[in-house]
Amino acid sequence: MKKNQESDVGKASGVVWKMWLTMKLLFCFLLIGFSTVYGNAFSQVKISISVNEVSLQEVFEKLTEQTGYHFVYSNEMLQRTGKVSVDMQDCDLGQIMAVCLKNTGLWYRLEDNIIVISPKFRQPDVPQKKITLTGNVKDKEGRPLPGVTILLKGSAVGVVSDVDGNFTLTVPEESGLTLVFSFVGMKTQEVVLSGQQVLHIVMLEDVSQMEEVIVTGYQEVKKEKMTGAVTTISSEKLSDRYTPNLIQNLEARVAGLSTYGGKPIIRGTGTLYGESAPLLVVDGLPVEGSIEDLNPYDIASVNVLKDAAASAIYGARAANGIIVVTTKNARNKGKIDIDFQANITLYENKNVDYHDNFLMNAEEQVERASEYYDYYFNRKYADDPSMTRDKVIENFGKNITDGAQINPVAYAWYQHAAGNIGRSELDNILADLSKNNFAQDFADNIYRRQVMQQYNLSLRGSSDKFRNNLVINYRTDNMGIIEHKSNWLNVYYKGSCDLAKWLVATFSVNGVYANIKQYGNDYNVNLDPFSYAQYQSFYNADGSVKKLYSWYCGNEYMPLQEGMEDLGFNLVDELRDNQTKTRRQEMRYHGDLLFKIIPGLTAQTQFVYEVNSQNVQQHATQESHAARTIKNAYAKMDTESHKLVYMTPETGGFLQTTHTSGNFWTARGQLNYTNTFGKHEISAIAGLEFRETKTSGDKSLVLGYDEQLQSSATHTVDFGTLSQMSNSPYFQMNGSPFPCNQFAFTPYLENGMGIVKEVRHRYGSGYFNATYTYDNKYNIFGSFRKDYADIYGLDAKFRGRPLWSVGIGWNAHNESFLRDLSWMDFLKLRFSYGVTGNIYQGATSHMTASSGDINSTTNLPVASISSPANPDLRWEQNRTTNVGLDYGFMSYRLRGSLDYYVKTGKDIFAPITLDPTTGFSSMVANVASIRNNGIELAIGYDWFVPGNRRGFSWTTNLTVTYNKNKVLEVENPATRAYDLVSLPYKTGYPVNALWAYRFAGIDDRPGLVGQSMYYVENGNTSHNAGSASVDVLEFGGQSDPKAIVGMDNQLRWNGLSLGFLLVYYGGHKMFAQPKSEVFESSWDSPLNIVYLNSWTPENHSDVPGIGEYASTSLGSECRTATNCLYDADFLKIRNITIGYDLPEHLTEKVGISKISLRFQINDPKALWIKNNAGIDPETLGIRKQASYMFGVNLSL
């Protein structure tokens, strides 16, 4: 059975000031909206209606257009009444209703702004003993349900619940009587009376009775009339599990949507250079902000538009699909609904066990390092008369004084070789080093248990004319590292007002404020414990934290150069001395006016303005490693005074600030037309849309900065001189001048200021779409849009691009020959074809130039031409064919969809080779083509259907996604193997293809032992295959999953709930745990555990040799070779959720309508991983940390 339901449903100081103004504005709106006097009277406006032989449904639709009242009824109930004819002029609504319902056995009841149609009830006419029952009816969210039919089973005795969901009914005083509760969109519920006189009924939503409405952003379309491929996720489904952001919550819920690696992709990658993420639309208009900024608690529904018929109305931004988010509205008139959610997520401590992370432990690495240094000092140069043992020792000592990176094992062996310590003392030192566990000490001092908290408060209320929503969301995260923290505040207000019967105004404002504190940038300090040798001690002998030395930091054994700062760093202090603070603010203002011109015709104007700013400050104190490094790097010896001169301030640290901002607006004007005449229905929209995007920013650098004194010495610095220095004139490291070019001073040449370029783009569009429906059986759809953009169009014919789609649909369940199939509720066939577009911001029709460094001769800035003009530049195109089937059987107990699609991308941006005489070697142009085709399957099944809220239910939702991706045409200029590995596009292969060097074993020839070999041309082998022809490579598969399967199970009983999500990703490959060639002295960081099986003359393994048998040629082929290519298939439980809804009779005692408790486990250990190496494909190493969430939801 089908039923319809229609019802009314900058700077820190500047940021604080804007927040205060925003809150004052919101308070004023709330004061006006929430203090409005609630009330409603039956309209006495005169109405005229003239219809002949039409259904009651059509009459009610015409009355809604004239009065604004909405009707709730059962289709089955109305179908039994047949056709009616009404011809009444200047009559009130009550008179018309009486005529319409005459002799139908139906009557109406006005509940607030809703007219409920129900059977006429009567009380028992046989004198007998009676009892009076009272009660209330609510939905599972605790909202009262007006208009619920309460019927004594087997009789015509009944009532309808009032606006507050309350009812009173007199029935015979007999045991075993049954009351039947029914309501449009809810599952019919039977309650057997057993002496109770007060009833509290909770009704559950019934998808079989909901005529689903799909929101596309431009319009709302009933599912029966939709010809496109769309998946709708309701807020109830989203609330089944908690995730910090929407994309994670959509995982495995939407067939065709991949969230692999946290990157959302709909129906495969269809571009090489352009944007691949779907467009985000919130409340009807696209947003430029991040999907991460959406408040997960304020989402009413999500519609994912996948094919051209669904998304083509968005034109040049539709090629990657659309995610349309609708935020929540006020629920109940005359009442303020208050909801509060709080949750805390605790993460497992990071696993720093070396073996679990595929690394040698301290004992294993000390043993192998000792074998090497024994060989180095005693046998390596035995056959070289010029390298006596004393010379070897002397050279090693010079490396120490020159600032080479020296590890404790090497230094101990050096001391022993030099005769400074004996063998027993050496053994004791090595034994002590073997006991160290740097990673664990690091974790004990630097890591902390990550804790994330989130709180959400929403207030919603409405009256006849005002609707108000205020939602405040706060999130804080300690990020699992000391001296790190992030805070995030999201404030959202949405209000609407009926300014007149013909005019509705909607306004919203959304503010997002984020503060993040974390370690500042430093090239030599790493917060990864596995960047340091595992046998390294974290502590000094007295228990204090020890200084560490990494590359270009020297070593703890070297004497300092005169006037130089020691570059050792204490990790704990460094986290305090060098910090980056990010302050981000995003504001979004949205206004909407809806004009009701005549019945069936409305006009709508919408405008959204977004402004965002981000301020990033890195403050490094004088004691920080970064400040000391800069001081050393830019020091020189004065030739006359022979004294050290510093080109940067001698005291103080530095403060680097980067500020970026963006301003975006979109304006839209649209006409909406809907009309029904007989068996024909037409729905159409037409409009114009304009938008602009602008980004800009600036940088500043302050040297010699003292935070307490708020002073600096930047004015003493010659940035022009600093920017031209590639190597330090005095400071030496590892026997070479310190490389200054790691510091980018070029942007600060003029008074310490740098400018981030301003980018502005403008777009204009016109669009139209229409749907024709005949007899609720056949749908024909068409859309057309033409977009213009200033990015393209040097050639006039490419300035605007027509984008369009067509679709047809057949509602087979409405056919007369299928209506008698009681098990068939819904069966729809769909077909669509259309053209959508995509934009690549990195290309332009015009010749472009970019500024560079200072000219050494003129001392003036220089610029260079970076790309040639391309007058043929145009939008990428995607042509999509889609065939689909939607179904619902057995009262929608079994439901789902099946789609097959072919999406072909034309004019895809890709590099092409140019004639060198043009002055350019290559450019990006519209020269490639890509095809994606696949199958999407969604199945939902209710294994058990509850008779009431606390009955047992079990629902399974299964989604299956299969996508095949292929590059049809591309010009790849790669001629050598390593070019194709780095730019893997090749005709006939997937976009993200993996190209592998064919591993040929380990070389055992004298002088070459321990080195990896790879097959090259003619079956030969080589240690360096990167320069060989591309033909030597083997296609290893693709990095994108071909198949994605998700199975979501929800079980409920007596207020308890259990949910778990299974996900499978398969058909893809990965490069992981490369068996790299390493320097023979590579002992300064942990080696992979595979080197426990490294090649030796006694062990001919496939792992390159280390130490004595290490390679003399360090090629990169090992990272993408066939011996480190693994299957990436896996099956995981993504999360397990346990919930409990407290009984209503307990919550009402404390004045709360609903209390829900929840516990959730996220990312437990994988159930199955295909590769036998134990590598997690999502991390390419150890599995992700599990987390545990505890939450509570309250509704007042």
UniProtKB/TrEMBL annotation:
Species of provenance: Odoribacter splanchnicus
Keywords of this entry: Cell outer membrane, Membrane, TonB box, Transmembrane, Transmembrane beta strand, Transport
Name of the protein in its database record: SusC/RagA family TonB-linked outer membrane protein
Residue ranges of domain TonB-dependent receptor plug in the record: 223-322
Location in or out of the cell: Cell outer membrane
SUPFAM superfamilies membership: Carboxypeptidase regulatory domain-like (SSF49464), Porins (SSF56935)
Lineage, broadest ranks: Bacteria, Pseudomonadati, Bacteroidota, Bacteroidia, Bacteroidales
Principal location: membrane
Origin superkingdom: Bacteria
InterPro entries, per the entry: Beta-barrel_TonB, Beta-barrel_TonB_sf, CarboxyPept-like_regulatory, Plug_dom, Plug_dom_sf, TonB-dep_OMP_SusC/RagA, TonB-dep_OMP_SusC/RagA_CS, TonB-dep_rcpt-like
Domain TonB-dependent receptor-like beta-barrel, residue spans: 650-1025
Family membership noted in the UniProt record: Belongs to the TonB-dependent receptor family.
Membrane topology category: Multi-pass membrane protein
One Gene Ontology CC term in the entry: cell outer membrane
